[in-house]
Write a structure and sequence with these properties.
Oligomer: heterodimer
Order of helices and strands of chain A: HHHHHEEHHHHHHHHHH
Shape of chain B: elongated
Number of domains of chain B: 2
Strand content of chain B: 15-25%
Radius of gyration of chain B: 36 Å
CATH class of the largest domain in chain B: Alpha Beta
Distance between the termini of chain A: 8 Å
Number of helices of chain B: 23
Number of strands of chain B: 21
Radius of gyration of chain A: 21 Å
Number of domains of chain A: 1
Structural class of chain B: alpha+beta
Helix content of chain A: 55-70%
Helix content of chain B: 40-55%
Largest sheet of chain A: 2 strands, antiparallel
Strand content of chain A: under 5%
CATH architecture of the largest domain in chain B: 3-Layer(aba) Sandwich
Strand order of the largest sheet of chain A: 1-2
Largest sheet of chain B: 7 strands, mixed
């Protein structure tokens, strides 16, 4: 046992581990100033809470290392079934406020299955695709793969949780690309998918087509195209996010000194708009450092995917990386006005226990794949 | 193993593509952040600053107004105002916001059209907030706060509103405030902005710049909801000055109540009696102790609000319109209250001795033989005054001549603005030589113009006919016709000019008994009586005694504006004595001041006037006027009043003088407000009233005979002096 621990610690990817720690430290610092008013108003120490969650996150992270994650490949159907069960239960028991992720109350904790189902999806989809690597060249092979993801995706959109749905799609495409699916077909799919969405929305507004999206979700897309349609309503967040980031300049306004942050021009800036706070107070330098750390994190992930002992491991790693990179793209992209607004947290930085815990488990899986890339003598 | 490695190859290859995509994503993000933060930094810094700092005008509390004893007349109370800040609406569909606002407010007054009109009227100054509604209830404030995000540009500001705590009491004199409008074009108002409230009438207008104070400013940072977070810099406001009036609130209330009781009584017999005014002056200083105008004005109904249709009708459309302050704006034919002026002019001329007896046989002996109020026999000055003898005063007028009457009238401030510190004061009309010169020139011009037009018409009619005449005879005949027409009209011109542009003897007689062209404001009459009572020292009437700075120090104390009337001392004394006879047995106002002991003594003069204005039936409708002062020996207070359609002076507004004097001198015997059945006690049919009424009968006769082409014009002039102060509504 001791030997095993020793081996584990000897073989850890410390670059990855230190990067995670560094990002968490940045998170605590930024959260502190983002919640200056809120911590008083709601009598909550957000930073301390986040630190506790980070501690629990590390526990989960190391717990994941205990055994080779490739065992999950054997439980594909169970994982997939659990996924569907969780999503169905959210539909039945879940609570949600406008736009936020649905949760199931467990005691005083709000359990957000959306964070966990992403990991379950990665673990089961990796098995599904690993059996088909190199064969995903025809529509006949591709369509079942889409259906495989499509069923849970449908349940997610029924909540409706557009953000998590988009993460699913990002994970699917990321893993498909690496699994050797036909690139032209994937490009065609992405193209027609986007085209269909645009056409559908246009049709909805011009001719009143039926639409599964709620009005607030549609407004987010509309104001993404032109925030000045509704500058104090739906366009508010887009406009304010840009002002907050942009006014930070090269060096930033200084920790706790950002007027936009102090006066809370962005709603719940400690969650989805945390990047804006960083941008305003630490400027381009701060934003660059964070992006660099994220890049290292992702880069290590891709490296791990390349060195995994089997295809399943590679695909799980790619799934995790895809999930994280999409969160980063979506969240930061939204803050700087190149992505529409969806409530997706910035991994490891945004306040929130569910998200942090899930990300630590996912990163634990990465580390796991790294650890078990060669058979241990255990 | 082979399959495995082949798969690994695929994955390795694809991971390269995957990595490329990820690098692109990172580059895009870094590039975008660089663009926003480094390249466009300035733009966003400016935007952040613009939206987080605000200049807030800290409007200064308007100065309070108190009476002479410090009783509050006008104060302020805190209110919420709803304003629309156009800046927040730049690219927004304003009508949508307005619609939503109208829906939330659910106020019949606030319609989409009304708000839009409000916005449109301010297009040149849109950077200033537009006041939608003042004094909104707290429930509405909460309702609006909840929907703030949906109503961009909407601001709820706290401010203070004027509180006219005594309602209609002193309403005309105090005036009211309302949104600034035409004043914005006046350079004196350069420091004002849209939505500011300014005094529109009364003290509020006259002392606007004292009451206003100086606005302060605060530069604050605000949060996303425009709530101020912290103050960056500030300049405190200076509250407006406090004004202490000369008015005595208790006396004012006595006068108001008395007037209402009197008016109610008079109305029983004369239903048209609905309007009137009265002024009580401090003889020694000219300070206004009380001022009443009927119908009443309640300043709070204006007070920055829109009038209801009923209110607008009441104030502006109905007859008599309540808006006018009849004490300073209404011009009234003085009737017999003018006789002391005639008397003083005659005594000044040296052609009349106060002891000389002139025999009254009921009718004056010169044309048009104006009737007297009775047959008085031989009367001296004092007796004639007591009886208001028309014969005596026509003879006095004849001896003095209109020039001297005019001079004495001017000496006593008649026919010109007194200069009281209230806006929109009327001028009145004294038919002095100066006035005649101007008036007759105007009339001559009109007559000439009319006849010239007529002549031109004939010329135009006949000239073509003459030119087109068939033969010489026809031509001559037509020329003769034209010539005869021209001659007729030239003769008419001479007659008309001779009649209308010359002062006739009967004009002097009419003027001498207070009829004819005479028209004065009640304040003028009061000031004239006060000067008479004050040994010929004329004090300009005034309302504001002291202006206090906001720190309580005195900024300005009223300085007396007095002058000696250029009438000999003994004449003034004789006239005062004569006027005390009016309240003695046999005088026309004897019954009025029965309760006031001989030791105090009152000088008075009643008046009944036939204004000859529209709405007055000849020989039937008379204004009742009354002037008085007391105590007789060392007068302290002077009164003048009018009751439109009051029939007699002593029977109407004289009763107000009685109540006020009795209150002032602390005489309470049978004058308790409830027991005081004023009009019943002295109905128009009592000997005094009857005498008084006859008083007017004579001039009424002459009115029938004397054509007065300017009569209606005079009325027009006076009416046009009423301020056009319609607030938003009418």
């Amino acid at each position: 046992m001791l030997l095993r621990l020793k081996r584990i610690f000897k073989n850890l990817d410390y670059t990855l581990l230190l990067t995670i720690a560094a990002i968490l430290c940045i998170s605590f610092v930024v959260l502190k100033s983002a919640t200056v008013n809120a911590s008083i108003k709601y009598d909550t120490n957000y930073v301390l809470r986040q630190m506790i969650w980070a501690g629990l996150g590390f526990c989960a992270f190391f717990f994941v290392l205990v055994m080779d994650s490739s065992v999950f490949a054997g439980f594909e159907r169970w994982l997939y079934g659990l996924n569907l069960l969780l999503l169905t239960s959210v539909l039945i028991f879940g609570k949600s406020v406008k736009g936020a992720q649905a949760w199931i109350p467990i005691g005083s904790i709000r359990f957000q299955p959306a964070e966990l189902v992403k990991i379950l999806m990665i673990l089961s989809l990796a098995k599904y695709l690993s059996d088909r690597v190199g064969r995903l060249r025809t529509w006949g092979e591709l369509i079942p793969a889409f259906l495989y993801v499509g069923i849970p995706l449908g349940l997610i959109l029924m909540q409706p949780d557009l953000g998590t749905g988009l993460v699913y799609i990002a994970i699917l495409f990321g893993m498909l690309v690496v699994a050797g699916a036909s690139l032209p077909k994937i490009l065609v799919l992405i193209g027609t998918g986007l085209g269909a969405v645009v056409l559908w929305i246009t049709g909805h507004f011009l001719w009143g087509w039926w639409m599964p999206l709620k009005d607030y979700q549609l407004m987010r897309l509309v104001v993404f195209v032109n925030p000045d349609v509704d500058p104090r309503g739906w366009g508010w967040n887009i406009i304010q996010a840009k002002i907050t980031v942009g006014s930070g300049g090269l060096w930033g306004r200084g920790w706790g000194q950002g007027p936009q942050t102090l006066n809370e021009f962005l709603p719940e800036q400690w969650t989805d708009f945390i990047f804006c706070v960083l941008g305003e107070e630490f400027g381009f330098i701060g934003a660059f450092v964070l992006l660099l750390l994220f890049f290292i994190l992702v880069w290590r992930g891709i490296r791990i995917a390349g060195q995994a002992k089997d295809v399943y491991g590679s695909l799980v790693a790619v799934g995790v990386v895809s999930m994280i990179i999409f969160h980063i793209l979506q969240n930061i992209g939204m803050a700087v006005g190149i992505m529409p607004i969806t409530g997706i947290p910035l991994p490891l930085v945004s306040y929130g226990g569910n998200s942090l815990l899930a990300n630590m488990i996912a990163l634990g899986l990465l580390m796991n794949i790294h650890l078990y890339k060669e058979p241990f003598i255990l | 193993m082979w399959k495995e490695s082949r798969e690994k190859l695929v994955i390795k290859k694809r991971l390269q593509i995957y990595s490329a995509v990820i690098i692109m994503i990172f580059l895009a993000l870094i590039g975008r952040v660089f663009w926003l933060q480094v390249i466009q930094e300035e733009i966003f810094v400016n935007k952040a600053e613009n939206q987080s700092t605000r200049w807030i005008t800290e409007s200064a509390p308007r100065g309070e107004v108190v009476d002479r004893d410090g009783n509050t007349l006008i104060t302020n109370r805190p209110v919420y105002n709803l304003t629309l800040n156009y800046l927040g609406l730049q690219d927004q569909d304003i009508s949508q916001v307005v619609e939503e606002l109208v829906q939330v407010l659910n106020d019949p007054e606030i319609t989409v059209e009304a708000v839009q009109a409000n916005i449109d009227s301010q297009t040149s100054r849109l950077y200033e907030p537009i006041v939608i509604k003042r004094d909104i209830p707290i429930e509405t404030v909460i309702q609006l706060e909840e929907r703030r995000r949906e109503l961009p540009g909407l601001l709820i500001e706290t401010s203070t509103q004027r509180s006219y705590i005594h309602g209609t009491v002193l309403g005309h004199l105090l005036g009211y405030v309302h949104s600034i409008k035409d004043e914005l074009e006046d350079p004196a108002y350069e420091n004002y902005g849209l939505g500011d409230l300014v005094g529109k009438t009364g003290i509020e207008k006259q002392y606007e710049f004292e009451l206003k104070g100086t606005n302060g400013y605060r530069q604050v940072t605000v949060d996303a909801n425009n709530h101020p977070i912290k103050e960056v810099s500030s300049l405190p406001s200076t509250p407006g000055c406090k004004l202490a009036l000369t008015v005595d609130l208790d006396l004012q209330i006595v006068m108001e109540n008395s007037f209402d009781r009197m008016m109610a009584g008079v109305q029983e017999k004369f239903p048209k009696a609905k309007a009137g005014a009265a002024v009580l002056l401090d003889v020694k200083t000219g300070g206004v102790l009380a001022m009443v105008s009927r119908p009443t004005v309640n300043p709070d109904e204006f007070n920055g609000k829109s009038l209801t249709q009923a209110q607008a009708d009441y104030y502006f459309t109905q007859e008599p319109a309540a808006f006018t302050n009849r004490a300073i704006q209404g011009s009234y034919v003085p009737g017999s209250t003018f006789k002391p002026i005639t008397g003083m002019a005659a005594l000044t001329s040296g052609l009349l001795d106060p002891d000389e007896k002139i025999t009254c046989s009921g009718r004056y002996w010169f044309k048009p033989y104006i009737k007297c109020t009775g047959v008085h026999g031989p009367v001296n000055y004092a007796q004639a005054m007591a009886k208001s003898c028309n014969v005596y005063f026509q003879e006095a007028a004849r001896r003095a001549g209109i020039s001297l009457i005019g001079q004495v009238g001017e000496e006593f401030g008649l026919g010109g603005r007194t200069g009281i510190d209230l806006p929109f004061e009327g001028k009145g009309l004294l038919p002095s030589i100066t006035w005649q010169t101007i008036e007759y020139a105007n009339r001559a011009e009109k007559i000439n113009q009319r006849i010239d037009e007529k002549l031109a018409e004939f010329e135009a009619e006949y000239r073509p006919k003459i030119n087109a005449a068939a033969d010489e005879d026809e031509k001559k005949r037509l020329e003769r016709q034209l010539k005869s027409k021209i001659n007729t009209w030239e003769a008419e011109r001479k007659i008309q000019l001779a009649y209308y542009t010359t002062w006739h003897d009967f004009d002097t007689y009419n003027t001498g008994i207070g009829q004819g062209y005479n028209q004065y404001t009640i304040t003028q009459l009061a000031a004239y009586v006060a000067a008479l009572a004050n040994d010929g020292i004329y004090n300009t009437p005034y309302v504001v005694q002291t202006i206090y700075n906001s720190d309580g120090t005195v900024k300005e104390e009223h300085t007396a504006d007095s002058r000696k009337v250029n009438v000999e001392e003994w004449i003034i004394q004789a006239t005062r004595e004569a006027m005390t006879n009016v309240t003695k047995p046999g005088g026309t106002a004897y019954s009025v001041f029965k309760n006031i002991p001989e030791s105090i003594g009152v000088g008075a003069k009643t008046g009944t006037a036939q204004p000859g204005r529209t709405g007055y039936e000849k020989m039937k409708d008379f204004d009742g006027l009354f002037i008085a002062f007391a105590p007789a020996d060392d007068p302290q207070i002077a009164f003048a009043g009018v009751m439109e359609f009051g029939n007699t002076g002593s029977g109407s507004v004289g009763q107000v003088a009685k109540d006020v004097f009795e209150y002032y001198f602390g005489i309470t015997a049978d004058t308790s407000p409830t027991a005081n059945q004023v009009p019943a006690a002295t109905p128009a049919g009592t000997p005094q009233g009857a005498a008084d009424q006859n008083d007017a009968a004579a001039p009424a006769d002459t009115e029938n005979e004397v054509p007065d082409p300017a009569g209606s014009e005079v009325t027009d002039v006076i009416q046009s002096e009423n301020p056009d102060q319609s607030p938003d509504n009418p």
